[in-house]
Design goal:
Low-confidence stretches of chain A: 348-365
Number of helices of chain A: 13
Largest sheet of chain A: 5 strands, parallel
Order of helices and strands of chain B: HHHHHHHHHHHHHHHHHHHH
Mean pLDDT of chain B: 88
Number of helices of chain B: 20
Number of strands of chain A: 9
Strand content of chain A: 5-15%
Oligomer: heterodimer
Distance between the termini of chain B: 16 Å
Shape of chain A: globular
Distance between the termini of chain A: 81 Å
Chain lengths: 365, 474
């Protein structure tokens, strides 16, 4: 074989190898986007599998979904709730649809996914964190193609698309556990414990994100991290317009679907609440008062519902705190909401002079 | 910086692009030197400086040797180089081992000991570049090569990043002439280099790391598992250590080839070996030939009496074991392999004039039996190699030969058989299966699909918890 022929054959082999590999990448991306879009988001997929299983176990029951961040993931324990029934006497499945680091954008994506996949809850409780209204990362790394429009509407489009594209460059390696699970389950390997999404049957965290028995230095580190993140935001608070519109869009979506919704400000420790400046406290009260008035959605301020002993770090509940929060949320929000009663709405120390009435019918409908 | 990581991929793409963008030879050498220094510094900058320093010393010692014809001066300079290199190696790698052994011996003798424990960091790949430096000065002393006149070339010989941390152990007479040789990037070179890298990545991620999932838990506590699983773990480790190390070597050869350098082949289908001598000709070839040339032959090789030959062989293999690590299990593994080689040597001499026996051994079934026996012998040897202590090794071997119940396999057994079948198929194909030649004639789209599938499988089969290369510790 001549040198020229050898060179031509080698070049052809290289070009075809690259071409085939790119094709395989694209095939995997398209296959996942079309058949299992949730696979890009392991946590969401784990919760969806649980939700589907619960709904399959109890066909005909009504669904109440609580959407939020890790605060909800750790702090809301649906398994602890006494049985809940709709006014028609049907059983109600209460499901924890939280997601690590979710803010208004993340919550919107989760709610849109539910609707897109034909999961329409009868009621919805939506978490809002005042400190999370000033800033939220762009959750595009776990997004599927269907999530892009919502993210692009409420974040820098270029950033969303670049993160989305970057995640697809290494899709085979990154999602290999999912691919193996689909084609050769025996080869699936467990990663480090911290990497395994472990959830209770109703979606709440099962010693995955956080444990109760963390050593003091770890708790101290978490507290410092929370302080570094939230203290500056709460000292000078201003709502990011993109996040405000994302939150409102989520509420609008629910209203369009006729889903009674309640917004809940989740518990924060005394130390955490101390980071709100006087001005911020007033601004927060004004913002949620206005939000409630303009959208007709009750806003429940649960920030001071749990004593400091109920916290792991300044804004994540431990198991004892989670039990207290869950019981009170059940009493003051879930039962009134599902029973069609009155949900106590925004009533804050800083907005006592507000002209908004202290209660309104759930969902404002 | 590990070979099979994105970090290395970015590093190599930058180095590769810059290297071929530079049209001049010397700046290319400097670029490779800078890249190699950065590569090692990414682990430990202090140790990178140490290697740099010892390499410069060896360069000037060899120049000194070359400049004088006075025998005692040459011998003194050689001794200086060997002692210097071995001192660094002993301090970093063996000091605590010797102190610990001495402490144990003193305690056993009833004496009080207050020997210190040295707080030293083991420089990655120290055994590899120490042997390269020693072989260079010895070859200069013997007059086989002239001392390199360019410091940058000599530094590149030792520090060249593809072989720096886990070999192969490169000889100066093979490497240094390549530095001078003009190079150009060609498609065949890229194809060969790329294929080697692909093969290495597959061996490491899809085979070695997979086998570790079975072998690691069993070697930690062999007494917990049933005998069948312990057998699988022993075989799994034999496959793991082969694919881990030969995978690294393949990637090293591939990256070097993409930069215009050829490194010595380090593995040649060792599990197709028909006896232990054959296996050591195929396993870690650069080390076994080094031991042969710089230990076994200088001791007298096999020219003396049978006893002397046996002594030379055992000593060389014991040193080979010690080279692998500072633990008595490594020493025992080396000695054990020396014994295996001696047994083979005597058996071969005894069978030499027995035509019927030779004919039976050379037949198809006979060859298969010899290959299987060699693999089994090697596998039993690596049990000692892998075990953290003699007690653990004995427990492991006890489980192998005294059937006992216990826990089942830590991973689905089907994964073991699937991977083992791939390794066996690779050996069959590599050992001259006619289909292999045919595969080269396949059209480019088919070959491209095969290579892309290998890469796809390597990435998909890589376990979540990847492991560092086994031979980095040496």
């Amino acid at each position: 074989m001549s040198a020229r022929s050898r060179s031509r054959r080698a070049r052809a082999a290289i070009v075809w190898t690259i071409g085939w590999y790119v094709f395989l990448q694209i095939a995997v991306v398209v296959g996942m986007e079309v058949f299992r879009p949730l696979a890009f988001d392991r946590e969401a997929m784990a919760r969806r599998e649980l939700l589907d299983a619960r709904r399959a176990e109890r066909p005909g029951s009504d669904l109440l979904i609580v959407v939020g961040s890790s605060r909800i993931g750790l702090g809301f324990l649906p398994g602890q709730l006494p049985p809940l029934c709709s006014p028609e006497g049907r059983e109600v499945i209460v499901f924890n649809e939280s997601h690590l680091s979710a803010g208004p954008r993340g919550n919107l994506v989760r709610v849109e996914r539910l609707f897109r996949d034909g999961v329409t809850p009868r009621w919805l409780v939506l978490e809002s964190i005042p400190g999370g209204m000033t800033h939220e990362g762009v959750p595009a790394s776990q997004a599927s193609f269907g999530d892009l429009p919502a993210l692009c509407r409420h974040a820098d489009r270029l950033k969303v698309l670049s993160i989305y594209g970057r995640e697809r460059l290494n899709v085979i390696s990154k999602h290999r556990q999912f691919l193996l699970g689909e084609i050769a389950p025996a080869f699936v390997t467990r990663g480090p414990e911290s990497n395994v999404v472990r959830l209770e049957p109703l979606g709440d965290d099962r010693l995955w994100m956080r444990r109760d028995d963390l050593p003091a230095e770890k708790l101290d580190l978490l507290a410092r991290m929370a302080e570094q993140t939230y203290r500056p935001r709460l000292a000078e608070w201003s709502v990011d317009p993109d996040l405000d519109t994302a939150l409102r869009e989520t509420l609008d979506l629910c209203r369009e679907k006729g889903i009674p919704t309640v917004v809940v400000l989740t518990p924060e420790s005394g130390r955490f609440r101390g980071w709100y400046s006087g001005e911020t406290a007033k601004q927060v009260a004004d913002y949620y008062t206005r939000l409630s008035r303009e959208t007709g959605v009750p806003v429940v301020d649960a920030r001071d519902w749990v004593a400091d002993t109920g916290f792991n770090d300044p804004h994540h509940l431990n198991t004892q705190g989670a039990r207290l929060f869950t019981a009170r949320l059940d009493r003051e929000v879930l039962r009134p909401l599902t029973g069609g009663w009155v949900v106590p709405r925004w009533e804050s120390r800083a907005s006592s002079s507000s002209s908004v009435p202290s209660s309104e019918r759930a969902g404002g409908k | 910086m590990l070979f099979c990581t994105q970090q290395f991929l970015f590093f190599f793409v930058i180095v590769f692009s810059a290297y071929w963008a530079i049209p001049w030879v010397r700046p290319r050498v400097w670029l490779l030197l800078a890249a190699s220094y950065y590569f090692y510094s990414s682990w430990n900058a202090d140790l990178a400086r140490l290697i740099f320093l010892t390499t410069v010393c060896d360069f000037f010692i060899a120049r000194g040797m070359d400049a004088t014809a006075v025998p005692w001066r040459r011998r003194a300079l050689l001794l200086l180089s060997i002692v210097g290199n071995l001192s660094v190696l002993c301090y970093f790698k063996y000091a605590n081992f010797f102190l610990d052994s001495l402490r144990t011996a003193l305690t056993a003798a009833g004496a009080q000991s207050s020997l210190p424990v040295l707080n030293v960091v083991l420089p990655i790949g120290i055994s590899f570049y120490t042997f390269e430096a020693i072989s260079y000065t010895v070859d200069v002393y013997r007059g086989r090569i002239r001392a390199e006149r360019r410091l940058d070339h000599f530094l590149l010989f030792i520090l060249f990043f593809p072989h720096l941390v886990a070999g192969p152990i490169v000889r100066a007479r093979d490497f240094l002439p390549q530095v001078y040789r003009p190079k150009c990037l060609t498609w065949p070179r890229m194809a060969v280099g790329g294929r080697l890298i692909l093969l290495g990545v597959f061996k490491k991620l899809a085979i070695a790391d997979r086998m570790a999932l079975l072998a690691d838990p069993v070697f930690v506590d062999p007494g917990r598992f049933e005998s069948g699983v312990v057998w699988l773990a022993a075989v799994a480790y034999a496959i793991q250590v082969y694919c881990d190390f030969s995978g690294y070597s393949d990637i090293a050869l591939g990256t070097a080839r993409l930069l215009g350098y050829r490194l010595a082949v380090n593995f040649n289908l060792p599990f197709a070996a028909v006896n232990m001598a054959d296996l050591w000709r195929r396993w870690h070839i650069s080390l076994s030939t080094w031991i042969r040339d710089y230990v076994f032959f200088p001791l007298g090789g096999s020219r003396g009496s049978e006893w002397r030959t046996a002594f030379n062989l055992l000593l060389a293999m014991t040193l080979c074991g010690l080279w692998h690590g500072a633990a008595w299990t490594f020493v025992a593994w080396g000695t054990l392999n020396g014994v295996f080689l001696l047994v083979h040597r005597h058996f071969a001499a005894w069978a030499d004039d027995k035509a019927a026996l030779r004919s039976a051994l050379d037949s198809g079934p006979g060859t298969f039996a010899r290959v299987a026996l060699t693999f089994l012998t090697f596998t039993l040897g690596v049990v000692v190699f892998r075990s953290p202590s003699f007690h653990s090794a004995l427990t492991f071997l006890g489980r192998l030969f005294a059937p006992a119940g216990g826990e089942g396999s830590p991973v689905p057994v089907v994964t073991f058989w699937a991977i083992a079948a791939i390794v066996a198929a690779g050996h069959v194909i590599g050992s001259g299966w006619p289909g292999a030649a045919l595969a080269n004639r396949f059209p480019a789209p088919v070959r491209g699909l095969a290579y892309a599938s290998v890469l796809f499988l390597a990435l998909v089969l890589a376990p979540v918890n990847g492991k560092v290369f086994v031979y980095f510790q040496f």
